[in-house]
User: What shape does this take?
Amino acid sequence: MPGTPLIMTHIFKNALVRKPSKSIINALSSRNIKPEYELILKEHNDYVKGLKNSGILIHNLESLKNFPDSVFIEDPALIYKSNCIILKPYHPSRIGESKIIKNEIVNYFQNIFIIENGNIEGGDILNINNHFIIGLSKRTNELGAKNLSILLKLLGASVKICKTSNDILHFKSECSYIDEETLLVSQRMSKIDYLRKNFQLIKLPEGEELAANALRVNNKILIADGFFKIEEILSSKYDLIKININEISKIDAGLSCMSLRW
Ligand code: CIR
Assistant: This one.
């Protein structure tokens, strides 16, 4: 878009993270599994270390006992340029997270916008420089996507609304930014026409879908540990930081969802 300064999506100096509360054992899980708190805490600490080793300054938010899923702070808020947009999670147990993060984020951002109508979760929003892909899913509906898209356009971005493949929690659960031309995708997400036609796709080998939510931070890529085929593919070109997310993935975590970066 003419006149719009180029944002490099993966260049970050700061990240907000929220320490898991003990109530995380009651977090939503598509596989209905209860994770162990102590193991999650260790994985979360390693994740934060990974962010620090990518050159990021960490800002910690208080854990929230009443919101078991609140460690996934990417879902109730979105940061674009110097703006923070408060989103609207779909799940009843997560709706209240928006109000809390709105009160916390004023310490970091002056321009705060709020999506009031529809549902939209950060896990369904993929940012590529000044462009956004919003994936419709069980958590993000057309009204939420449309309202966010109007706002992002006013802020100078372009937006494409796509449909997340069936049975995937969020668009980014199986689609990650690697660089402005390249996305990491699962086989099923690779079938989405818009992605096929507009990006170079690195397809995850079958069985390695849990590594599909990777996180590019500066010159590093944080990736789930234990997925050797994709590790071999990516490590020829990128510097990887491997993070064990075995326990936290029981409640559908990926690497992007546990921080908000700018
Ligand atoms: C949920 O179902 O809302 C959480 N248990 C997992 C959310 C993961 N968020 C994300 O990938 N953006």
Summary: The chain has a mean pLDDT of 95. The first helix runs from residue 37 to 53. DSSP finds five helices and 15 strands in the chain.
